[in-house]
Automatic annotation (TrEMBL):
InterPro entries: Glyco_hydro_4, Glyco_hydro_4_C, Lactate_DH/Glyco_Ohase_4_C, NAD(P)-bd_dom_sf. Belongs to the glycosyl hydrolase 4 family. The record marks E112 as: Increases basicity of active site Tyr. Keywords: Carbohydrate metabolism, Cobalt, Glycosidase, Hydrolase, Iron, Manganese, Metal-binding, NAD, Nickel. It comes from Enterococcus ureasiticus. Mn(2+) binds at C172, H202. Residues 197-413 form the Glycosyl hydrolase family 4 C-terminal domain. This is 6-phospho-beta-glucosidase. Substrate binds at R96, N150. One of its GO terms (molecular function) is 6-phospho-beta-glucosidase activity.
Length: 438
């Protein structure tokens, strides 16, 4: 008999955890998980206990024999794990609020995965991920690391270049969201759609769209332009429509984050307005989280509450559970994940992380060739990859000048002078989470 699967979720106290539990429950027949360890740190103890108790009620109600363990002892949890999922936030939402707020003072986009905020989220996160990788090499050397912690692309890049870990996949709900948006606009089931994705995490493009084998890219873009819905909405990003002529000529669907690059001034003004009216996105999310945890405390609640869909990470458990299911069962289906490029995108370095369609097998994702990046997006994708590589190096070395270089080459930062000022202010603000720099 096969032994049951052991899964470890680091950042288990996250408000998203019920999504994951629901996904595992729904797939139990194919994915017989015997143990799910939810791990957190002391600062997350209370949340871990609340969400852990809900997780236990959920599996009990569903009648599946998944044993849920809650712990603050990461090493104990990792022993003999099969899959390790990471969904933690170094410095919690307070740190995110600073990443979103400080750049605004310099007339720069304040965002958790793009621009200066994305750089700092990477600087805080990468050393922690690399510590987890070291623990995994000791305690569960054959396990898969499935990372959702943002910035997921930069984190995957760092693991690929700065550790010996081979079994790593970076995951985002973005591509699934785009695919669903397309299916909705065409009014057909998503199973009939095939989308060829190319690019990087939060810098990905639906390059070609097929419906039952027919290329419908132009049709989808026309429909989206008519409905002024032209980049598929995400809960966390203002959904201004692009100029129709531009969008049609681009003839690809950019993930919502591209609005920060193609509509920088408009997005910046909107962020400033939102900041005055309701605070940063982190502050909005803090309120949603507070309400969610109040609901989670209810002893009668034993399902994932619908309020969770107010968060930007909708479908993330689908992405995670499908991926784990396909690796475990060697399904060889196609999913869009962050993995080593290996020549799938011809004009990105082979050893870099890219977000592309992959065949998901027991030996991991095999990226499918998508060829050269189309000329209109080649520059921005390569530029962001350069930024991610320099940023990952800064995170690992703690070198000030490398961090300054990363900040300055980011296309959302307008001058070297502002780059230095923002770097200094953000370093000071996040001091306690940046031991490599201090
Ligand atoms: C998006 C992204 C995720 C991100 C989330 C933020 O959907 O793909 O990577 O974590 O939104 O959502 P939030 O509700 O935290 O702003």
């Amino acid at each position: 008999m096969k032994k049951g699967i052991k899964i470890v979720t680091i950042g288990g106290g996250s408000s998203y955890t019920p999504e994951l539990i629901e996904g595992f429950i729904n797939r139990y027949q194919e994915l017989p998980i015997s143990e799910l360890w939810l791990v957190d740190i002391e600062a997350g103890r209370e949340k871990l206990e609340i969400v852990g108790a809900l997780a236990k009620r959920m599996v009990e109600k569903a009648g599946v024999p998944i044993k849920i363990e809650l712990t603050l002892d990461r090493e104990k949890a990792l022993k003999n794990a099969d899959f390790v999922t990471t969904q933690f936030r170094v410095g919690l939402l307070d740190a995110r609020a600073k990443d979103e707020k400080i750049p605004l003072k310099y007339d720069t986009i304040g965002q958790e995965t793009n621009g200066p905020g994305g750089l700092f989220k990477g600087l805080r996160t990468i050393p922690v991920i690399l510590d987890i990788v070291k623990d995994m090499e000791k305690l569960c050397p054959n396990a898969w690391l499935i990372n959702f912690t943002n910035p997921a692309g930069m984190v995957t890049e760092a693991v690929l270049r700065h550790s010996n870990m081979k079994n790593v996949v970076g995951l985002c709900n973005g591509p699934i969201g785009i695919e669903r948006g397309i299916a909705e606009i065409l009014n057909v089931p998503s199973s009939e759609i095939f989308v060829e994705f190319t690019g990087l995490n939060h810098m990905v493009f639906a390059k070609r769209i097929f419906h039952n084998g027919i290329d419908v890219t132009k049709k989808v873009i026309s429909l989206m332009t008519e409905k002024e819905e032209n980049a598929v909405s995400l809960k966390n990003i203002a959904d201004f429509a692009y100029e129709p002529e531009f969008f049609k000529k681009l003839n690809m669907i950019p993930i919502g984050y591209l609005r920060y690059y193609y509509k920088t001034a408009q997005m910046l003004n909107d962020q400033k307005r939102a900041f005055e009216e309701e605070g940063t996105r982190a502050q909005v999310v803090q309120k949603v989280e507070h309400e969610l945890f109040e609901l989670y405390k209810d002893q009668d609640l034993a399902i994932k509450p619908p309020q969770l869909s107010e968060r930007g990470g909708a479908y993330y458990s689908e992405a995670a559970c499908n991926l784990i299911n396909s690796i475990y069962n060697d399904k060889r289906d196609i999913q869009t994940v962050n993995t080593r490029n290996n020549g799938a995108i011809l004009d990105i370095d082979s050893n870099s992380a890219v977000e592309v369609n992959c065949l998901i097998t027991k030996q991991g994702p095999i990226p499918l060739t998508t060829g050269e990046l189309p000329v209109p997006i080649k520059g921005i994708v390569q530029q962001i990859k350069s930024f991610e590589r320099v940023a990952a190096e800064a995170a690992v070395t703690g070198d000030y000048d490398t961090a300054l270089l990363a900040m300055t080459i980011n296309p959302l930062v307008s001058t070297d002078i502002d780059a230095k000022k923002m770097l200094d202010e953000l370093l000071e603000a996040h001091k306690e989470y940046l031991p490599n720099f201090f």
